[in-house]
User: Which sequence fits this backbone?
């Protein structure tokens, strides 16, 4: 009896602007995607990475070899859809094995028209980016568009991230309220602390916010209203929030149209907390500058040091730009640098010495990633509670751990912190 051979996998090609060509097999949608190529060093959480709006305009390569093995599910989506331009893996699993899986990674990417390439030497690709810096690439899974010269020419024509307002592509269209808690977990786990009271009204500026950040803010006692990135400060203040949150998001912070002046107004009126792109935009609003990193920080194993305590947290990060420390000092604003990345010394945290304002570059919601930095949400609640109670509290005081050291030693206590002053 003659056995039929399985069909050959369709071809895929990744062309980099520097001339490098990688050939593999296609998965996901059959199309062509172009964007800046970066790599992520996380071992787990590929679905959260795939749906993180901060990757708009980028092609993401995973350094961990086996991707797709746990499938995908609705609970782990970090946004309404993926915004990245392509996905690169060493080995793709088409038959997931996980009790939470409801769809394969391949099927989800097809549904959202995201091309993927597997079977290439991802180690060689990562070395190239590390040595030569981030660059634009074109990923084709279209069988009719596999000619190397044409793909290379397109890669050299496509724009990078500099000067592009990618926030406009990912922000929400209209304000909405968020009230979903964190994933409930599994039977038999330790009970979670109740949501603290009283609750505080929070307006979150959506630069590309991840859902788990909103879940964590809700869990720490905030009634969250999310508004588009272009919302004027005056309109936000009319909502009478107790505080304002500046979210994560994609691309070049200097290109986000009109936001710096609005944030500068907000920090004069309300407590403000920024994460990732929100941290960079806050730095710009306070008179600093940002710079582009050679290949960025993307992954769940970045070391961030708290300069007040000397403690080092292993952090989840996803950014290609950083706040320039010297520019902040030269601007004359009373801002303290509170955290640094131990790999390259870049600024990872800011706090105002006179206003209730602080920010962090990495992701305390850790989706995916370690939970070392989750204490930032408790710090924010403490800052808002003390401000609402009439105390002249500053971001620098909170960053120094004044009044919150016990909470940082005990994350369960931090999660339940309902301040007596409130």
Assistant:
């Amino acid at each position: 009896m003659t056995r039929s051979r399985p069909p050959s996998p369709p071809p895929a090609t990744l062309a980099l602007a520097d001339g490098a060509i990688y050939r593999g097999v296609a998965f996901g949608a059959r199309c062509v995607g172009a964007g800046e190529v970066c790599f992520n060093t996380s071992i787990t959480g590929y679905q959260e990475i795939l749906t993180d709006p901060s990757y708009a305009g980028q092609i993401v390569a995973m350094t961990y070899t086996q991707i797709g093995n746990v499938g995908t599910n609705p609970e782990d989506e970090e946004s309404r859809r993926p915004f990245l331009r392509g996905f690169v893996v060493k080995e793709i699993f088409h038959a997931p094995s996980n009790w939470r899986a409801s769809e394969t990674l391949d099927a989800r990417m097809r549904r959202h028209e995201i091309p993927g390439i597997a079977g290439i030497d991802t180690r060689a690709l990562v070395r190239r980016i590390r040595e030569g810096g981030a660059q634009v690439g074109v990923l084709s899974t279209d069988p009719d568009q596999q000619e190397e010269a044409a793909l290379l020419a397109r890669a050299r024509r496509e724009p990078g991230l500099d000067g592009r307002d990618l926030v406009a592509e990912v922000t929400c269209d209209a304000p909405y309220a968020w009230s979903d808690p964190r994933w409930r977990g599994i039977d038999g786990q330790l009970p979670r602390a109740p949501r603290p009271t009283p609750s505080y009204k929070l307006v979150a500026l959506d630069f590309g916010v991840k859902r788990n950040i909103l879940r964590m803010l809700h869990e720490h006692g905030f009634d969250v209203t999310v508004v588009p990135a272009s919302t004027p400060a005056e309109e936000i203040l009319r909502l009478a929030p107790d505080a304002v949150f500046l979210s994560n998001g994609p691309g070049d912070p200097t290109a986000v149209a009109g936001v710096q002046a609005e944030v500068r107004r907000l920090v004069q009126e309300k407590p403000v907390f920024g994460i990732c792109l929100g941290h960079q935009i806050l730095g710009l609003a306070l008179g600093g500058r940002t710079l582009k990193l050679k290949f960025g920080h993307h992954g769940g194993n970045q070391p961030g040091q708290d300069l007040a305590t000397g403690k080092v947290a292993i952090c989840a990060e996803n950014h290609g730009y950083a706040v320039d420390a010297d520019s902040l000092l030269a601007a004359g604003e009373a801002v303290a640098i509170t955290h640094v990345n131990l790999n390259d010394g870049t600024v990872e945290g800011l706090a105002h010495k006179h206003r209730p304002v602080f920010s962090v570059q990495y992701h305390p919601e850790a989706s995916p990633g370690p939970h070392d930095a989750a204490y930032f949400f408790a710090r924010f609640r403490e800052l808002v509670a003390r401000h609402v109670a009439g105390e002249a509290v500053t971001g620098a005081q909170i960053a120094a751990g004044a009044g919150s050291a016990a909470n940082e030693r005990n994350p369960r206590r931090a999660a339940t912190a309902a301040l007596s002053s409130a």
About this structure: The radius of gyration is 22 Å.
